Amino acid sequence: xxxxxxxxLLFLSLVSIPASGQDRQLEDLMVGFQCGIYPQTxxxxxxxxHLVHNKEYSEIAKLLYSENSGEIxxxxxxxxxxxxxxxxxxxxxELKDINHYKSLSIPVYNCxxxxxxxxxxxxxxxxxxxxxxITWLNKIIPIK
Length: 144
Prior knowledge:
Layout: H1 3-29, E1 31-35, H2 43-53, H3 57-62, H4 69-84, H5 92-102, E2 107-113, E3 115-120, H6 121-126, H7 131-140
Parallel strand pairs: 1-2
Antiparallel strand pairs: 2-3
Helix pairs in contact: 2-4
């Protein structure tokens, strides 16, 4: 193999490593209830579902202050549902912070089927919850 080809091969392999790492980071941020060819929840949604099943509500409350906008979004949805069902009592600070986050224009990476998009947090709360979101919530925390 020529020296030039070896250098090109080395360069291409180094360039592809960060790209696959970046895909993994996006997957960790993604909020998805029906992702992929065979609809399934995203790893982040699975993580939150696990916390709910284990009744780790204080851990979910801590996610309100995460750097991950997807965790913030899901923690708001869960904490509001828990409060509605009288399974968790929101503090005044949490209520204030939830209302603040709902008005922010921070990006949330989400997917539906094979497509993904970035939506602003504020616009997600301006419209009705999606059918997939409601189905997920009803499955893990049924309305009493």
